[in-house]
Design brief:
The chain is 32% helix and 29% strand. By secondary structure, the chain is an alpha+beta fold. The protein folds into 3 domains: 2-145, D-tyrosyl-trna(Tyr) Deacylase, Chain: A; 166-176 and 204-268 and 298-491, BirA Bifunctional Protein, domain 2; 508-619, 3-Layer(aba) Sandwich (Rossmann fold), CATH 3.40.50.800. β11 and β12 (233-235) form a beta hairpin. α1 (52-70) packs across α2 (92-108), α5 packs across α13 (483-499) and α9 (361-382) runs parallel beside α11. The relative contact order is 0.10.
Length: 624
Amino acid sequence: MKELILHCDMVRFQADRKTKVAEEIEEKQKSASMENALFVRMAIEKTDESNLAEVAKNTVTDLKDVASKVSTKNIMIYPYAHLLYGSEPASPAKAIEFMKEVEGLLVKEGFSVIRAPFGWYKAFEFKCKGHPLSELSRVISAEGKAEKPASKEVESQAVKAEKKLTSTWLILTPEGKEIPVDKFDYSKYPKLGIFSQYETKKDRTVLSEPPHVTLMREKEIAGYEPGSDPGNMRWYPYGKQIKDLIEARVLQRILEYGGMPVETPQMYDFKHPALEKYMNRVPARQYTVRSGEDEYFLRFSACFGQFLINKDMYLTSKNLPLKLYELTKYAYRREQTGELVGLRRLRAFTMPDMHTVCMDFDQARSSFLEQYKLSMGIMADLGVEYETAIRVVKSFYDENKEFVKGLVKTVGKPVLLEVWDQRFFYFVLKFEFNFVDCLNKASALSTVQIDVENAERFGIKYVNPENETKFPLILHCSISGAVERDVYAILEKAHMDREAKKAAMLPDWLSPTRVRDIPIADRHMAKANELADSLAGVRVDIDDRGETIGKKIRNAELDWIPYIIVVGDKEAESGKYPVRVRGKSEQVEMSLDELKKELSARSAGYPLAPLYISRLVSSRPKFN
């Protein structure tokens, strides 16, 4: 069970309307208020169901302790399922049973208790006190209050340094103007304003569920895995298809660019001298595992494996720039629990990771710009808007201002510039393309860094034209960022479109089904299958369910199918098909050749893949 506890001067709620899982209540239970109260927002997990009574007992013990410390006997219990990031909720019946049990135990202990009704849409307001115990969070199980982490968390020196980091924040315009973030006019760039505030305040906690979580469930793309650590997801066929297509597109672009795919281990030895030093230069928290008496860490990128390959290579200037690429499935980071939410921030994720060995700064800058443009290309493929952040050490910025300003000109709009007085990390320059979501949180997607340390640390060398052995520079590049985060951005954008009364949809090339055939009657099934077979290389399914044509069309629209085709006698005879194209107000009539031509044009250059699930809609299972 998870809970947030606030000590409030005042808290009140008003229940407006009920959901399908709402408990039945009397009119007087629809609103209530308390003063000098603990406002306890709680969420009950599936894992609590086997021992609800013990979890309730431990919850009450903890609440009694908190209440005594803040000198109150008033407690409001408030169901709040939004706390369940990364875990499965208990059934509504069990959740209600649990809260009633907690309520009863507290009353027996002499507390004045108000329990907000379960399953109702409620408005609430509160005024939180400002003392050290006024804001607390808890994870409580049958064993008691959770204090022990699931595994050892390693905090690098870079993480510690990042907490102390001081920055100068500017907006850099395409005209080369440097404007303090609090002086810039964001009226034409509202997303940049939101992003700038998010970055400068550095508050990463998410207290409400973002819209993409609802969509990932609704579209059966992904779900939380209660049998694993929070932040590890399960992917259903539709989501797996989307992920695989993004990964294939990234590989296409990397191969076209000259990257060479490799594969390296997921687990590395803490005692390796180069790795031990590198770990303290990376702002990330790690999973650790033991094998006998030895301790290892799970990789958070492909850096280690690629650097160790580079170390064993004989390189000359003729080989450079040299680009190694790996799709790290998976990379692992022990992100903080309060930051885990949906697909936005995970503890296990898929990171396309390329490292480029460069001879000198001229070659590094040239490759950096190429990869910057490559990243712009993949963002265009995904169809998401982004805000650019450039982060740079002051000494490097002073020497390379024209280069940095050129990056801003290339992206064609103002960017957020963070300038560090000192170099805390292994890189002197990086950029990120950040997506700003529906909750005004930002997430980095594409990124490239210029690394000035690790060639020497790992013993990576090359021979220059004068036959001298030198240490190169290394670029770290992910042109897409984590694939799971790409899916999050696409879904959040779809929600924004829906809110703006536009047609919510995935990019056509990513749609698990691109064309849906709707036969009017059973006798048209043969023609529908023939049409599907004729569209070789296109993901086509057939809605063969015994429902009305109108309902089938409506279901296809709810499934965000890009092309919907009705097949009946007229179509079978004429060879002309009425085609509904998502996002267009009118249907158009097309021949099979015309349809093939349009589908081919819209998917040109993108990877092809068959359906990952049955062609017949009637035979598909439900995954959640």
